[in-house]
Design goal:
This protein is mainly α. It has one domain: MetI-like (MetI-like fold, Orthogonal Bundle), CATH 1.10.3720. The protein has 10 helices and 2 strands. A hairpin with a 2-residue loop joins strand 1 and strand 2.
Length: 280
């Protein structure tokens, strides 16, 4: 018991601060989810209004039931797993290869002379035009689909790596050289850490690109996966299956983007951007 100005102050209940933080976090989460809930209500209301037929726009509640049915049957897990395997495998290859290529282009004039025109022309070009060639060379199975993901996702990583390295403060490099840092120490301890925020930005761009391309090539080439399941549903006039695929892909994309944002904050705890309020 503590006396303050002649009154008896009761101690605060244990966990009050934690409870307030939990309430604040719950309120923030509800505020963040409100636009999605409003969109869902608008979807349900439009479907029930009779403006469109249930074939053109099925009710959201019926689509959610279809997703639950697919999940119970194991189809959702299978198709999601296949799509994620292709997207994440292609993304990993593009991430490693893009960073290495970007580093090589920044450090070697001959490598930059060779690849800079290719990157400049290839980045804005629709890579889907290479799909017939990739199918001729690699077939119609996972290898060709992953190759298409790599082909699309590698360009943002290369350009971000180049930009990040080019933007490193030259005073840091000069200071490290004056202190006797070797070329490898300069690269791994100065240049790459300083360029890592820009490289992470390139990876954040490449990840949704990888998912988009994986779904697209599944739609075009068939087989298993979320994109292939949507096209299969469309061929049999199964509008519930088509809209279920849209919702499933949206959820997968949201989870991937948020996971990458969280990874960025964890990897860049030393950087000033980590001091900004989190939106994840």
């Amino acid at each position: 018991m503590a006396r303050i100005a002649g009154t008896t102050a009761e101690p605060l209940p244990a966990g009050t601060g934690a409870g307030r933080r939990a309430l604040h976090a719950a309120g923030w989460a509800m505020a963040r989810a409100a636009p999605i809930l409003l969109l869902g209500l608008a979807w349900e209301a439009l479907a029930m209004s009779g403006t469109l037929t249930f074939y053109q726009l099925p009710r959201l509640s019926a689509v959610l039931v279809r997703i639950w049915t697919d999940a119970a049957a194991g189809d959702l897990l299978l198709n999601t797993g296949v799509t994620l395997y292709r997207a994440l495998t292609g993304f990993a290859i593009a991430a490693v290869g893009g960073v290495i290529l970007g580093m090589a282009m920044s450090r070697n004039a001959a490598v930059r002379w060779l690849f800079d025109p290719i990157v400049s022309v290839g980045f804005p070009m629709p890579k889907i035009t290479f799909l017939p060639v990739v199918m001729l060379w690699l077939g119609v199975y996972d290898v060709s689909k992953i190759a298409m993901v790599v082909l699309d996702a590698i360009f943002p990583v290369v350009t971000a790596t180049l930009s990040g390295i080019a933007g490193v403060d030259r005073h840091l490099i000069w200071s490290a050289r004056n202190m006797g840092a070797s070329r490898s120490e300069l690269l791994w301890q100065i240049v790459l850490p300083a360029a890592s925020p820009q490289i992470m930005t390139g990876l954040q761009v490449a990840l949704p690109v990888a998912l988009i391309v994986a779904v697209l090539v599944e739609m075009l080439m068939g087989g298993y996966g979320l994109g292939a399941a949507m096209v299969h549903a469309w061929r049999f006039a199964d509008s519930h299956g088509v809209f279920a695929g849209i919702v499933e892909i949206a959820v997968v994309g949201y989870v991937l983007v948020k996971a990458m944002s969280l990874m960025r904050r964890r990897l860049l705890l030393w950087h000033q951007e980590a001091l900004a309020p989190s939106t994840v």
